Amino acid sequence: MTDQEIIEQINSSLAEEFEFDLGEMTPETTLFEDMGLDSLDVVDLVIVLETAFGMKIREEEAIRKIRTLGDIHNFVINKKRQMESA
Amino acid sequence: MLLKRVVITGMGVVSPFGRGIENLMAALLTGKSGVVQVPALSEITGMRTRVAALATGVDPMEIPRKFRRSMSSMSIFATLACQDAAAMAGLSETQLQSGRLGVSVGSTIGSPQTMQEFFRDFGIDNSLERMKSTLFFHIMNHSCASNVAQALGVTGRILAPSAACSTSCHAVGYAAEMIGIGKQDFMLCGGADEFHPLTSGTFDIINAASTAFNDSPNRTPRPFDRDRDGIVCGEGSGILLLESLESAEQRGATILAEITGFATNSDPGSIANPNASCIADCMQQALDDARITPDQVDYVNAHATATEQGDIAECEAISRVFGSQTPTSSLKGHLGHAMAASGTLELAACIEMLRQGLLIPTLNLENIDPLCANVQHLPGITRLPVATIIKNNFALGGVNSSIILRRYQQ
Predict the structure, then answer these.
(1) Is the pLDDT of residue A69 over 80?
(2) Which architecture, in CATH terms, is B7-250?
(3) Is there a shared CATH topology between the B7-250 domain and the B261-406 domain?
(4) Which CA distances in Å does B402 have to B84, B231, B277, B287, B318?
(5) Entry pTM
(6) Which of B63, B68, B69, B127 is the best substitution to test chain A (most A C-beta atoms within 10 A)?
(7) Is the N or C terminus of chain A more exposed, i.e. has fewer CB atoms within 10 Å?
(8) What CATH class has B261-406?
């Protein structure tokens, strides 16, 4: 997958799960303030990403630092690259 | 005996005939059946019944995702019905959130659909890694009550009575008592359930589900009829907004009816089979609670689900308490059996019968079973000045309940 394909997959998966408008999703969009997610949603967000990309990320320390959609894009892109080179 | 007078100022209905009491009454007054064929039931090994009464006219998207994520269908039905009841009563957001309004809403079990989805996934690899954070909120026993309270911002008391088919009569009775002793001024009360094959299967395996009318769903269930062959499961929600009379008068609310009596008792003789003496005791206790005599009751709204034993036992009990002349009918022929929602869906219709001065007959009752002929079945829609109604609900588990409803008089 290209980086752009990964980003599109992330956005569409999150838009479906959390009923977001794809047109309003930018890398700067914040998860808590702009998208209105809370701690329960973050648990489900991890499951959505794990299911979409076939990876285990629940225990990753970097997850806790995610604040924006762009953070998620970068996190998943890096994780995918690590998996591919492992 | 209620220490304070308790009146009804709002109703909310989600039924096979859509949302709202108007749709329900339009169907009941024109003899419509809400029972349909459910093709998915034919794909289940061992399932003989193929019909159900499914709720219609519900748009879950009306509820914001923040609240909807913790709801299965039953909580969605309950929340929409509670919103409608509160709106009919003219309650403001301030009143809803005052702490003086409580919620008493129950279901038979937590969401069977969500449980099925979880265990199906869990069974694949014995893993919890795909379990959603909101799963528990769908399956907990107080799912409906809590979800209603969250969505409406209720800060008062939460009750989640659960007694299968007696649930919503319990919910109303306990809510009335809560207001009667002054602990709350308002209660949103009733029941909700969602259809799942588990429910139909429960009755099917004990030979209590209707199986002979799978090709003509409008002809079943057939309470009191000689050709009745069992229950047709349904779903939906019925909600009443109860309020102390002084509160209703103070804010100039339209009073729809009054709850004057409630009784419930346990039948330890059998967990499954009804007993006429216990049912009669329950109805008599409700009359005593309302401080009235049997001759003051104008109409019996029976539980009558169209099972062989249940209908006979209830008729026997009604004839013992009221004799053979008090008009009696069951609304299960129209609505099927909505389980925890059935009591309040039928109470809502009873309130309209009081208000409109008419009684609705049992749908599909064509030939009265001789063993059910000891009560006064209605031949058709009957116009008469109805002042007092007794509403029965009985449940598997040996739980009987009766509510006395009266036309409001100052």
Answers:
(1) yes
(2) 3-Layer(aba) Sandwich (3.40)
(3) yes
(4) 25, 20, 14, 9, 12
(5) 0.96
(6) B69
(7) C
(8) alpha beta
| Residues paired with residue B105 on neighbouring β-strands, in sequence order | B190
CB pair distance less than 8 Å for A44 and B132 = yes
A40: nearest CB among B129, B130, B134: B134
Residues of B in contact with A41 (CB under 8 A): 69, 133
Residues A51, B130: C-beta atoms closer than 8 Å: yes
Chain A residue with the nearest C-alpha to that of B132? A44
Find residues 16-55 of chain A whose CB sits inside 8 Å of chain B.
18-19, 36, 40-41, 43-44, 47, 50-51
Question: For strand B18-19 and strand B257-266, is the pairing parallel, antiparallel, or unpaired?
Answer: unpaired
Q: Which domains does chain A have, with CATH numbers?
A: 3-85 (1.10.1200.10)
Nearest CA in chain B to A16: B65
**CA B204, CA B82: separation in Å to the nearest integer?**
32
Contacts of A18 in chain B (CB under 8 A): 65
Map out the domains of chain B as residue ranges.
7-250, 261-406
| Catalytic (active site) residue A38 | yes
pLDDT of residue B347: 98
Sign of CA dihedral B274, B275, B276, B277: negative
The string of pLDDT tens digits covering residues B171-224 is 999 999 999 999 999 999 999 999 999 999 999 999 999 999 999 999 999 999
Q: Are the C-beta atoms of residues B91 and B127 closer than 8 Å to each other?
A: no
Helix boundaries (H) for B232-305? 245-250, 276-290
